[in-house]
Each structure stands twice: as C-alpha cells, then as structure tokens.
Amino acid sequence: MPLRLDFTNMMAGPLPHGAGLTASEWAAGATHFAAAHAAVMARHAAGTLGFVDLPSDHATRDALLTAAHAHKGAVTDVLLLGIGGSALGPIALRSALRRPHWNELDATRRDGWPRLHVLDNVDPVTIEATLERLPLTSTLVLVISKSGGTVETMAQYLIVRAALEAAVGAEQARARLMFVTDPEVGALRAVARAEGITTFDIPANVGGRFSVLSPVGLLPAALIGVDIGGVLEGAAAMAARCATPVLADNPAGVFATLQWLADTRHGAHVHVLMPYADALRDIAAWFVQLWAESLGKIRPDGTSVGPTPLPALGATDQHAQVQLFMEGPADKTVVFLAVAGKEALGPIPARHAERPELGYLGGHTLGRLLDIERQATAGALAARGRLNATITLPAVDAPSVGALLYLLELATAYAGELYAVNAFDQPGVELGKQFAYAMLGRAGSEAARAEWDALPRPDPRHQV
Ligand code: PA5
Description:
CATH class of the largest domain: Alpha Beta
CATH architecture of the largest domain: 3-Layer(aba) Sandwich
Oligomer: single chain
Strand content: 5-15%
Shape: globular
Mean pLDDT: 97
Number of domains: 2
Helix content: 40-55%
Low-confidence stretches: none
Number of strands: 12
Bound molecules: 5-phosphoarabinonic acid
Order of helices and strands: EHHEHEHEHHEHEHHHEHEEEHEHHEHHH
Strand order of the largest sheet: 1-12-11-7-10
CATH superfamily of the largest domain: Glucose-6-phosphate isomerase like protein, domain 1
Number of helices: 17
Radius of gyration: 24 Å
C-alpha cells in the first residue's frame, strides 16, 4: 500500500455546520494548483530547485554509504553540530528510522553502529554536559552548515574542535572532523580546503530546510545505519506520483491546495501536524521549520501572509491541545499521520474484569488503542465541523519516511506559489542576525550597530 492522503474531513458535505471546502472552491483550487505546478517545474528547469534532484542522486548515496561503513566500528559516537535545517532533518531521520532510545542502547543492540548526538543550540550548559559525557577519543564530529558561517554552528565548532584537539591531538582531531557545506562558498569550505578536511557538498541550489535528502540528513543517517537507499527510493516514488499537474492525482498538490484554501477562504491559519507514532514526532518539528520559514513572508504588494504550523502528538496531545482544537477558534486544520499495520503490537493483558475502567481493555492491543484514538479524534473534530485530514503510512520504514518528507517539501514549494511568495528565502531573520553580529563586534555590521543603538531602551515605567 502506498502512502495515502484522505481529505474527506476537509470538504463541505461530509462536514456539518457549513464547514469545509466547497466543490467550487476545490475546482478553482485545481486551476490554481495547475499554475503552481507549472511554476515549480519552471523553477526546476531553471536550475534553482535542487531538492527535486536529490532522490535520484545515486552517486552521493554511494559515497555516503562508503563513508558510513568505513566508520562503523571505528567510532562509538557521532556528534553533529548544526541548527535549523542542518539539525532538524537528521534528528527526524534518527527518531523515525532507528530504534527508540537509540543512544541508550548498547553496541550490540545498535548492530555496531554509533550513537548520534545533535547539538542544535548554543546553550553552554548543554554543550558542556555533552562534552563531559562523550568519549571524544572515539567520536566523529560532523559540522553541518549550508552557508558555512552560521554564528551558532561556528561557535559550537570552535569549542568542540578545541575539546577534540585536547583529547586526541591536532592531527587526529582533523581526521575526526567532517564538514557538510556549500560546494564553493563559506568559511567551512575555506577551512576544509586549507586543512584537507573530509567534506560532503550540499548542492548550491538546495536550501537549508529543503536539505534533508542531501548529505545534511543522509550522512548522519548513514553513519548510524539507516537505509538511506530506501529513503531515497521512497522519495523518488513520491516524486513520480507528483509529476502530474492534475490535482486529484498529486498528493503534495492536494496537501498544499487544501491548506492554502483552508487558510485563505476559511480562516484556518493554524496548520497542525499530529503524528500518532512517537517515531514521527520529530518529523512534525521538522515540518514546522519548513512550513513557517518558507511561507511566512511579505508579498510584493506589501501584505504579510503565512500559516502558523503547530506540532502535536497523538495520543499525548489529546490531553493537552485537542480541547483547543475542538472548542477554541475554528482557525485550524489538523493533519493526522497514521501508521498501518500496528494492530497486533502491544497486547494488553486481561485483568480486573469486575472494574469497568479496566476490564474492557483486556484482549486489545496498544497498536489498536492508539489507532482507535486517532480515528475517534478525527471523527470528533469532523462532528464539530473542524477541518482535518489523515496521511496514512504503510509502515514507519525508510521508503515511507522518504515519501513523506518529499511530499511535505514539494507541498511547501507548491504552497509558495499558491501564496505568491518566494518559499526559498528567509529575509525576515536577517535583521536579528545583523543586530547580533553588531553586538558581537563582527566587522561589516556598523550600519546594524547604528540601527540597534537608535532603538528604544528598556523603560523602567514598563518594567515590574
Ligand atoms: O532553511 C534555512 O535556510 C535556514 O533555516 C537554515 O537551515 C539555518 O539558518 C541554518 O543555516 P546553515 O545551514 O547555513 O547553517
């Protein structure tokens, strides 16, 4: 069974209270989608949309597998330094495609593959604690940055390299470093060239949040034994399904068009992604960056647009956020991620037949309970006219995860066209970066310093 997207509960007719997308909105959406599809194809033909080519890059896949097998047994730990797209994709792949609690398992249960630690922030307490705990003499350090100059990653690199050199000496430390960065530009590339550090390329036309299927995601995944060939096969299969401009046949197109129509025609500005599988929880976190940073933009006409993505986890968030989804403002869509084939897992023993709260559970399984809870939540939302859809994965395996990641990436590219924004830049984060550079005294940030100095200072009358 291929990955399936069921959007019955997004449509007027099935939904009560006059909610849902009407047939005429959907028909108009199909026309808008055909134009969006053509625009994405044109971007690809112009060579600016590199993520589309990643599923068929078999040469890179083979080089990554060779590197992974060379390190298997030679290192116990991989430490990844990166932030944003350079960390969220690797974390999502580890959670989805390795056993739960991977880093706590012994080497036998990890089949000899290393642990993977990701430092995706510059909180000194975390970094110090990680370095204290890691066996640096058997650790491989990956520094991942598309730009090769992101302040957080560069600061981590300087600290970790010094610690590595203190542990194994300068020469060994060089051999224990690997970079993943742009083929030409950036400080990391320059350091790699000067010092001969092993480096894998992020194609110039692949941006940070669209890089999970490049060495950004696939190198750390391969190093811990993930079937990266399977991930790419799944992505390629999804790419083939999405070749068509016919909306009804294009899963990424359906996802993008549903969300765009719900937002712009029905006020559903908040887009919840809610997996019913712990393994997929970090894919929801990865999606938040993809959707938010790609679509939250000022359009050429000066209007601000952009839906707000929100991660949730079933069944956990039934006891935290679902009350809001049911009875709070009707400004949300909820897309559930379901996983087929778990019905037999986690048998629940029969006991306390005399207690109504316990007796009925015996003979069921946790897999069935989790899936029934998902169906019940989707049905309850639909009964109250709350828009929701379900993506069902045949399993949490490499091809399904590859297909899902690619679907969401391509949907984001389509959504950029539907919202009429450039999904591939992030000008809104620039001013904060410049202010930080100015305060840190980076050369070239004098104009930002002047703007920073002109800002209002904290006012004691407005402090408590
Ligand atoms: O999507 C993006 O481009 C950004 O969110 C980046 O992933 C993030 O800023 C990290 O950038 P870099 O990989 O250049 O260090």
